[in-house]
Task: inverse folding
């Protein structure tokens, strides 16, 4: 199985995903942590306090399986024109803080298919910074 540029070993992916397909976060229903987005957003603003002059976007994507378990977190960094950036020592603490904040959004309830059965899905949060200030969190 190959997902989001991550190659899973047969035993890892099969046991976590239960040999079931993986759906995007928005279809057919969204996974839920029981909190509205504005509550989650407020929590992110309170938790993400690392001092930096970073201009760009930090995205954390992860998977929620049909049991509501999360795993396979991945952090991507790009500039404000969506060109990829590499991790540097000046933004590493910020990335670590964001990753920890995203992991704290659990527990999750899995998304449901059209028959209301739990399914595997992807989820992401993107954090846009301008001169070190968090100016936007997606998806809205």
Result:
């Amino acid at each position: 199985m190959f997902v989001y540029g991550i190659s899973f070993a047969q035993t890892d992916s099969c046991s976590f995903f239960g040999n079931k397909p993986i759906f995007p976060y928005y279809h057919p229903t969204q996974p839920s942590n029981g909190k509205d987005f504005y509550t989650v957003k407020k929590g992110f603003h309170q938790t993400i306090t690392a001092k930096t002059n970073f201009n760009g976007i930090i995205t954390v994507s992860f998977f929620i399986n049909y049991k509501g378990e999360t795993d396979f977190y991945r952090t991507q960094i790009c500039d404000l024109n969506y060109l990829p950036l590499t991790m540097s020592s000046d933004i590493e603490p910020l990335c670590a803080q964001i990753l920890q904040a995203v992991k704290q959004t659990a527990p999750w309830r899995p998304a449901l298919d059209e028959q209301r059965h739990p399914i595997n899905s992807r989820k992401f949060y993107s954090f846009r910074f301008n001169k070190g200030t968090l100016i936007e969190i997606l998806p809205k």
Remarks:
- Residues 1-12 have pLDDT under 50 and may be disordered.
- The radius of gyration is 16 Å.
- The longest strand covers residues 118-130.
